[in-house]
Amino acid sequence: MTDEIVIKAESLTKRFGNFTATDHVTFEVRKGEIFGFLGANGAGKTTAMRMLCGLSQPSEGKATVAGYDVATEYEQVKRHIGYMSQKFSLYDDLTVEENLVLFGGIYGMPRKKVRDKITELLQELGFETERKTMVKSLPLGWKQKLAIFHEPSIVFLDEPTGGVDPVTRRQFWELIYRAADNGITVFVTTHYMDEAEYCDRVSIMVDGRIDALGSPAQLK
To answer: Is 161 exposed, middle or buried (0-12, 13-18, 19+ CB in 10 A)?
Structure first.
């Protein structure tokens, strides 16, 4: 982790009619940091993340991601991040290898790098025998592990371990640690208290606001 700020939000607010989903949220995230957004369902975590990913326009305030303004340079933001939503899914009617080739192409990875990365990732995950397997026959947890394939500089993960077993959750967090060790910034939402322990810093969201922010030890 470095002192370089790669995500910055200042009074970031999103309203839907009379309802304020995200209320003047302010924070910074450093390069290589694992930053946790902890809160119950409906706390505003996903709304905030969607604005940071350039998928939703702020009603008020501003934010930059990888140096780009999320309101005016959202296409540049999208090119520099990885995003996995709660409903993330690979294409069930393609094989594991075909999905990875497709996602590598979407994110502009050179063809040779895609091939090398596929081999490296499948070996790392113990998936070598699943290269030609149709994704629809894989367990959910396996699909989640393939989601951070293209190694962007910043990864946004929206409750990535929801619905998977404890062993797969732990393995997924090991992948996140490895990504952070390689300088990738990880922004992750969760409502699991134990997962907050894995983060360098955690913000606790309540009714659209950040009620507390600090390291897990400080928050305890």
So the answer is: buried
Structure confidence by residue, pLDDT tens digits, 26-83: 999 999 999 999 988 889 998 999 999 999 999 999 999 999 999 999 999 988 888 7
pTM: 0.79
Which strands sit side by side in the sheet containing 19-30, from one edge to the other? Answer: 19-30, 5-16, 60-65, 68-69
Q: How many CA atoms does the CB half-sphere of 174 hold within 13 Å?
A: 8
The Cα–Cα gap between 125 and 146 comes to: 9
Q: What angle do CA 76, 55, 144 make, to 5 degrees?
A: 95
The token duo for 202 is 């955690």
Provide long-range contacts, Cβ within 8 A and 24+ apart, for 139-145. 139/168, 140/164, 140/168, 141/165, 141/168, 141/169, 141/171, 141/172, 142/168, 143/88, 143/89, 143/90, 144/84, 144/88, 144/168, 144/172, 145/171, 145/172, 145/175
For residues 38 and 50, is the Cβ–Cβ distance under 8 A? no
**Which residue type does 95 have?**
T
Distance CA 13, CA 1 (A): 28
